[in-house]
Amino acid sequence: MNTNINENKEELVDSKTLSLDQEWYKLSNKKICSVLETNPETGLTDREAKIRLEKYGRNNLPKSKKPNWFVIFLKSFLDPLSLIMILSGLVSGLVAITSQKIETVDITGLVIISIIVLTNSIIATVQEVKSLNQVAHLNENKQTAIVLRNSKKTEIDIEELVPGDIIFVNSGGFVPADTRIIDNQLLKIDESALTGENEPVKKISDSIKEQNLMLGDQKNIAFMSTLVLEGKMMGVIFGTGQDSEIGKIATKISSHKPEKTPLERKVTHLTATIGLASIILGLILFLTSFFLLTDENSKTIKELLVISVSAAISLIPESLTIIVKICLMVATKKMAKKNVIIKNPKSIETLGNVNVICSDKTGTLTQNKMTVDKIFIDFKEMDYKDFEKNKYKELINCITLCSDAIVEKEKIGSATEIATIDFIKKFEIDYKKMRLIHERFDEIPFDSKRKLMTTLNEVESRKMVYVKGAVDYLLDICTNKLINGKITPLTQEDKQIIQDQLYSFAKRGLRVLGFSQKDITENKEKYESNLTFLGCVAIIDPPREEVKASIEEAKKGGIRVIMITGDHKITAFEIASRLGIADNNFDGVLTGQDINELSNEQLKERLKRTNVFARVNPEHKALIVELLQEENNIVAMTGDGVNDSPSLVKADIGISMGITGTEVAKGVSDVILADDNFKSIISGVNSGRNVYEKIKYSISFLIAANISQILTLLLILIINKDIALNSVNILFHIFIIETIVAVPIGMQKERRGVMKNPPPTHKRESLLKGITLQIIITTLFNTLFAVLNYEIAILWFGSDAKEFAKTGVYIAIMFSPIFYSLLYNNFFLPIKTTKDLKEIDKYRPNKWLLILMLVAFITTTLTLIPIETINEFFDFKTKGLNPILAIIFFINSLLPTVCIYLTYKLILKFI
Ligand code: ATP
């Protein structure tokens, strides 16, 4: 870029009185360089930069203080559920303390509740700290900037930038520090991060004389963290880090607190509702037992109170919020392995809900490995091999000079340009030398709105304008053609021939790029008009092999895939047909021009029938998202360019491309695809749906186990006027089942089968939808066998065997959930066909489930050791228990699993 420093004779500020908090916009370009002791031609020296770095500090924003783990730990006790538990513990403790004789059993309630609350808080703290670290890690991604140092352009970490550094920023980049612009080309900057103003600001490079300008009016300043939307700039840095405008307010921006996801909120709501129900239930239990229990088997009111409180809290699925956190963390990690980088766990849920995916074509659906296949020159189609380098010098000049691609060991630039330079290199043309000889004086960069790129170069002492781009756009600005070295007017018939050729290429799925030129040595006129059409190249960009299957999978899962591309409509339709996006259910292609001619209502109607959108601008993308959302769709949108930001933000889930995406697109998106591949989006959707399913399983498992326990207690109370479980039993049940057995349900393997059903609609759907049958069947059998154990003991050994009967209830209540937790690991699927049933049978339980099942099994078995003190502690008797009765108790705790499995299968067969 040429530096064009303005000499301003009337300096507004005397250099001696300048300090670093001056009004920089008033200074002339020369003055600002002299104040900052820098040279726009050479930049700072490394030595000087080092000194300044020490003096002014690193160019980073104040980081938000990482919350202390201990504070997080303390805060976790403020959770409403923990509060209910703590309150219950206090009631039990108080009862124990106010008793005349304190027994170990009485304080056990308090001890067990404390263990549960502590365990939950520790897990919650670990998860919270992990997720905060994850967010912090995301923010740690190093950013670089191009800077002039020791007369050379180099790329350095933005934290090393200092006042006086000369920097260069192109469209799509962030401004790394507060900078006075000293040269620019068609520069437009989005300053919304700083000023809240959404309109892009056109920038200038001259000094401004007015006084007291607001930030938004300082047109020659580029502020730190704002985005270059169009054009490019060169500038001198005057404010870094905390001295920058954004640095002054950065504490506001950097406070990054992971918010509660909708699913987490729903779970909290559910647990709170159950919490309320539990209080009512506790009251019922207390009153029933109080009135039913006769004197002879009576317990003290205090004992009844402790049991009722314990039973009430046992209904609450305390571990649910933790399971949700674990599910989201596990999914985020798994997805990163599958090239889907989730910036906020909230996005996992939304991904699971998506029912429309709007995808780019190039790179996402196609391989982005572009190669020139055919050429259209002298109004003839030819194979690329037949190209003659001595005959088509003009086309070679245009391809080489009107391009920024670098094709060496490493290929830098857009895939389209790389393809054309690759092609030129096949004919041993030294494109780098050509660019050196024919200096570029000016340029208008490519943008997806104009679909053109223009340069001004000196070629053989003449000033040549080269324009390349989409042929249909190029034809509108061409008035001549070059055939066999002769320039003649471009007639309507000529245009028709070119359009026909374009159609023919596009029908073969080829991407076409046209080239033109004009000589402006004598007449200075607008670059993009009166051009001479030189010819075009047709580029192959094959669809990605794996994408077709992914699209099929998406369709089966009730997800519609829409292609939105800047490419030609016939090319787009051809590729869409090959991939199964444009099928019999949908008609035609809508172009950006068609969209302009339709009203929003008409477009909404057409959107129902159209799956391919071609030659669209970024504004059209945003409109499409908006109209789809108005129809209650949950929309995912992919994008890579700066201009895609509005649609990425507007979509329910914005997906940017890790390889080809600009920093801006990555910055505003919710998800980044590390491999740019459409297939990864479907993997993400699959993970999202699995999370939802696992959480539902956990809810179902916990509710069934908890209700069974209370139902058993109530039934035996009514039938036998006995309290079958004491507070220690109840609380131990919570400890083993909630804290040990339920957790691995959230860690189980992902199931591909979720993609066979329509997406869940979290917004309206109750968390209990689809799991009520599981809850009813499980509760029924669990309760039935627990009560049966009690009754068998009484029937067999008479009412004196109450202590043994209670052992039976304890065994059933504890062991049944341990066994049937196996079923909750991918057994309760939304089964529709017999094929689905086969999928279940293939299932192997996860390692964590087996380990934790074993831990739970051994711990529970230890409580059954026939030692009097242990027996007393648990308020049952295993010492002297009839071995046959013991075997029956165990069989009865296994039977619920078998019965649940068979009944569920049977019911589903009938459904
Ligand atoms: P998608 O939105 O699916 O990524 P795309 O990459 O084809 O589609 P654009 O990048 O907007 O969309 O390109 C649109 C058209 O502009 C292309 O068909 C091509 O003719 C032309 N084009 C693409 N890249 C360049 C470039 N670097 N210079 C000039 N013209 C280009």
Q: What fraction, in percent, of the residue positions are helical?
A: 40-55%
Strand content is: 15-25%
Question: What are the segments in which pLDDT stays under 50 over at least 5 consecutive residues?
Answer: 1-18, 251-257, 829-834
- CATH architecture type of the largest domain: Up-down Bundle
Structural class: alpha+beta
Describe this structure in words.
This is Cation-transporting ATPase. The structure is a single chain. With 911 residues, this protein is of the alpha+beta class. It has 4 domains: 3-53 and 142-254, Calcium-transporting ATPase, cytoplasmic transduction domain A; 264-340 and 690-910, Up-down Bundle (Calcium-transporting ATPase, transmembrane domain); 347-367 and 544-682, HAD superfamily/HAD-like (Rossmann fold, 3-Layer(aba) Sandwich), CATH 3.40.50; 371-540, Calcium-transporting ATPase, cytoplasmic domain N, CATH 3.40.1110. Helices cover 48% and strands 16% of the residues. It is built from 32 helices and 26 strands. Strands 10, 11, 14, 15, 16, 17, 18, 19 and 20 form a 9-stranded mixed beta sheet that branches. Helix 4 runs antiparallel to helix 5 and helix 17 packs parallel to helix 19. 47% of the residues are buried. The model is unreliable at 1-18, 251-257 and 829-834 (pLDDT under 50). The chain binds adenosine-5'-triphosphate. Adenosine-5'-triphosphate binds next to helix 14, strand 15, strand 16 and strand 19.
Short précis:
The chain is α+β, with helices and mostly antiparallel strands.
Topology summary:
Elements (H helix, E strand, L loop, with lengths): L28 H7 L10 H11 L12 H8 L3 H19 L5 H36 L4 E6 L2 E6 L8 E5 L7 E13 L1 H4 L5 E2 L18 E2 L4 E13 L5 H4 L1 H5 L7 H31 L8 H14 L5 H18 L2 E3 L3 H8 L2 E4 L11 E7 L2 E4 L9 H9 L4 E2 L3 E2 L2 H11 L5 H7 L2 E8 L4 E8 L2 E8 L1 H5 L2 E6 L2 E4 L2 H16 L3 E9 L11 E10 L6 H10 L3 E5 L4 H11 L9 E3 H6 L2 H8 L4 E3 L3 H13 L4 E5 L5 H6 L2 E5 L5 H6 L2 E3 L4 H43 L6 H15 L30 H26 L4 H19 L13 H8 L5 H17 L4 H7 L8 H28 L1
Parallel strand pairs: 9-21, 9-24, 17-20, 21-23, 22-23, 24-25, 25-26
Antiparallel strand pairs: 1-2, 1-3, 3-7, 4-5, 4-6, 4-7, 8-26, 10-11, 10-20, 12-13, 14-15, 15-16, 16-19, 17-18, 19-20
Helix pairs in contact: 3-5, 4-5, 4-10, 5-11, 5-26, 9-10, 9-11, 9-25, 10-26, 11-25, 12-25, 17-19, 25-26, 25-27, 26-28, 26-30, 27-28, 27-32, 28-30, 28-32
Bound molecules: adenosine-5'-triphosphate.
Adenosine-5'-triphosphate (ATP) binds next to helix 14, strand 15, strand 16 and strand 19.
